[in-house]
């Protein structure tokens, strides 16, 4: 058997093995032991081996992304999946049964990612190891010698890691698994701009300009010497190799098709991505039709808001007016951050009307660093620490302020901060009634669905009082609904890139640049954009059912407790939890 088929064969084998294994009675300890082994396996990671002669202080090297690593991972996960399938889960407590079901899905989804060889396309329109490199210093505090040593280890191993990525992408060229060629126009520029002859001019050298005076002189000398050498001997050569590969081999050889359906096993791959990101059994047609219905509904609401604003032109003209009228823009980063912060602080005072329990951890609001802002969306959240040692952070994109209208400030604050990501994520991390596995769980459709639902909660407590901010809320909601149409259109129904960009722009009011960037994101991150709307729709459906069943006894605070108390869940398990609460 060749290496190229080993991963797929191992993944296929596990299903057969599982059917042949007897189902002995499981104990809590059996599952706990298995979960600990899986967590330990994940936690150890796949670090590139330390070369002979390199000091052990530089052992925390970059990730091993070789073909052998993925074979090893597939083998181990297949064994874990088989052991889990052999347990009779009916003997476990209800809470542990939920843990077991979630672990089963995690193993299944990761094995499918390996089966479909997603690692042969390790880059995207805004994702990739080369995009991550400039932000590498942000991962270290640089207050201890160990921080510098670990940073140097990453720099020393960057060329080896890059060569492994190139090898995987060459295999992708041979199998047809590549980024679409059209999206690679200008893709080499972010790589080329990082290459410098004088490494002291690189942003990666910056930490070595501020080595603490409190360090021993020997350590200071070594850190500067080895860090400079790593940039000279690993990072810059690795960047040059990757740039040459992109220009000479990858772009000329990349596929001329667009969607996943054009890849080997593409239809099954996209079906897997839908299930992985939504936790639902949906066909591409169901995804597409849901998106069309949501877009139509939201356009109707936008028309009503336009009328309320007294605007007599078309919806497209109203969108243009909002984007060009100076009253809706600011000139400085500080002013934009103030607008978001004011909305968030006002919401803080309304939270007791919506929730019985609030997180203890505080949060702050700050600008996304300029060096990474252009590749980021409007904002993102960095979680705090459950022990109170670190606050949560709402990170706001302040690049290109003309594209950051004030009328979306409330929706943005509520999604990323409270009652959105900060409240939900820190409630989970501080909930000691949950297992450690559940406190650390990431379920995108739940988290992003809650964030989108949180935007709407502003209406329940008196926000969006003027038509423009309400239109901003609808703009954010339709932006997520459009993703369902574009994502499925591209990956299942043969949409062209121009067709997808036009649909995105026409229904969101985005200018051509943002509409293109958003479309390209969903071309290279198939399925991820589906999570927001499907998660929100499930929460809204459960709320409507609760309101109908409970009538005057419905209390929004109790409903939110039922949604949040078990941490993030796949949507079918969330529905089961809420229906049990209703009984």
How do you describe this structure in short?
By secondary structure, the protein is mainly α.
Structure description:
By secondary structure, the chain is mainly α. Helices cover 60% and strands 2% of the residues. It has three domains: 3-116; 129-256, no CATH class; 275-534, no CATH class. The termini are far apart.
Q: What's the structural blueprint in terms of helices and strands?
A:
Layout (H helix, E strand, L loop, with lengths): L2 H18 L7 H17 L22 H19 L8 H22 L13 H4 L12 H12 L1 H18 L13 H4 L24 H37 L12 H13 L5 H25 L6 H10 L8 H18 L12 E5 L2 H4 L5 E4 L9 E5 L12 H8 L4 H9 L6 H4 L4 H14 L9 H26 L4 H12 L3 H13 L6 H20 L5 H9 L6 H12 L1
Parallel strand pairs: 1-3
Antiparallel strand pairs: 2-3
Helix pairs in contact: 1-3, 1-4, 2-3, 3-4, 6-9, 7-9, 11-19, 13-15, 15-18, 15-19, 18-22, 19-20, 20-21, 22-24
The assigned structural class equals mainly alpha
Low-confidence stretches are 13-22
Shape: globular
Instruction: Count the DSSP helices.
Output: 24
Physical arrangement of strands within the biggest beta sheet: 1-3-2
Order of helices and strands: HHHHHHHHHHHHHEHEEHHHHHHHHHH
Percent range of helical residues: 55-70%
Q: What Rg, in angstroms, do the CA atoms define?
A: 25 Å
DSSP strand (E) fraction? under 5%
Overall number of domains: 3
Distance N terminus to C terminus? 55 Å
- DSSP summary, beta strand count: 3
Sheet of most strands: 3 strands, mixed
Average pLDDT value? 93
